[in-house]
Amino acid sequence: MRTRIGSVAIVVIALFITPFILRAQTVASVSTRRAKLQTQLSTLESQINGTQSTLNNLRSQHESLQRDINIFDAQIKKARLQVRATEIAIEQLSSNINTHTKTISTLNKQLAREQESLAQILRQTQAIDDYSAVDVALSSDDMSSFFQDLDAFTSIKKALGSSFTEITNTRTHTENEKQVLQDQLSQQQQLKQIQVLEQRKIQSQENKKERILRKTKGKESAYRSLILSQKKTAAQIRAELFALRGSAAIPFGQALQYAEVAEKATGVRAAVTLGVLKQETDLGENLGTGNWKKDMSPSRDQPVFAYIIKALGLDPNMMPVSRKPSYGWGGAMGPGQFIPSTWVCYGGFINTNTGDCSNRRRSLSWRAFWQGPWKYVASKDRVRKLTRGNGPSNPWNDQDAFMATAMLMADNGASKHTRYSERLAALRYFAGWRHAKNPAYAFYGDGVMGYADEFQKMIDQLNNS
Does one domain contain both 236 and 368? Predict the structure, then answer.
């Protein structure tokens, strides 16, 4: 009996030591690579900032062919640097994802060992409990050996409580690792989306530069004539189509009207709202259109989506949502690309169990919270209060989408009217507050502000016409 009990004790000791050895080896194997990637990323960020300074200086100079060609060159250089920085950020995340995946695998194996150890302890407990005094008297072992076995078994029984605690801790650690892994996989997917936009921008800038050089043959006079010939009238600007994600294109004049109404209500510049919607449309062209049953998070967004659709009297199978990427979930609705769980706080929906849209008191688990039931409350409909329309606000309705986009940008700080606050608000719109200052997402914010600059020029021309 002593041998059997001793073997269980050895298993218990090994159980607690092995995971820490494996964890230390894992950390040591990736730290050098992470440091190297971070050094490369810091160098690229410095080069990107230097190129941006060059761009700022060029834009302050008098307009000329050479200046504009230099601007194209600087923009292309910056975009290429950003592509490389994005590649490194993706590589960093891939390394982290690999580490967390291995950690989860190790934890799962650890949990299996702990459960087996617990089963062995319980079996030995039963064996000892069944070992009577008569068995001792009839045994060939002497009494001192028996009591030594009992001492060993007492130690094992103490380990029983520790085993229960370790199993609980391992399960918690595993769930935390899974949450981190899910977050990093989502970040990786967002960066891949940005990378596609970056590469498309490089191609677009190179095409524009080549076209200008071809048409002007390097002559300043020809460039002046080209600029004049491309200048649009106010009527042409208003009639130009403004593409929208998940909705039909509308004339720019109509889009501007929606954005200006939203500006009066929220304080967010019309050009910035237009810039966000333009950037979201560009992203949407990459992902395509999905279906709510296939592409929407079943635990978070599908339950809420059902209530939104019911309140609007729409057929869920007919409403376009964003297609999910290779990892994570899609299901974003309308031009502003709101996911249902975000729309509820703008569109007037509350969870009837908590009385709010955000689980503010954390009285329910998130999974239980999103399950509802949900109810539309007109007095809580923030979008409708500002648009002054009738019925529940609708994420696929252009006017409602423009207003909701401006509202979310205002909540993100864009109404402060500084370039920094507008760009940061755009980054929060895309990546959330937690990741908004991650340099890897800079391209999205720069893209929104670049579009905003273009739209502001158009708005100024219309106002001066």
Answer: yes
Q: Residue 392 pLDDT more than 70?
A: yes
Q: What does each C-alpha distance from 182 to 109, 166, 283, 321 come to in angstroms?
A: 20, 24, 21, 22
Identify the domain boundary among 191, 216, 241. Answer: 216
Sign of the dihedral defined by the CA atoms of residues 146, 147, 152, 156, in that order? positive
In a domain, 240, yes or no: yes
pLDDT digits (tens, 9 = 90+) for 282-311: 887 655 578 999 999 999 999 999 999 999
Tell me the percentage of the chain whose pLDDT exceeds 70: 82
User: What is the extent of the structural domain holding 42?
Assistant: 2-216
CA distance linking residue 386 with residue 384, whole number of Å: 5
Do 76 and 162 lie in one domain? The reply is: yes
Range among 131-140, 247-256, 397-406, 435-444 rated most confident? 397-406
Q: Are residues 68 and 9 in the same domain?
A: yes
Q: How far is CA 155 from CA 15, 38, 149, 159, 161, in A?
A: 15, 48, 10, 6, 11
Q: Which residues contact 260 (CB under 8 A, 6 or more apart)?
A: 270
C-beta neighbour count of 217 within 10 angstroms: 8
Domain total in the chain:
2
pLDDT for residue 404: 98
328, 436: one domain: yes
pTM: 0.73
Given a contact cutoff of 8 angstroms between Cβ atoms, the answer to whether 402 and 255 are in contact is: yes
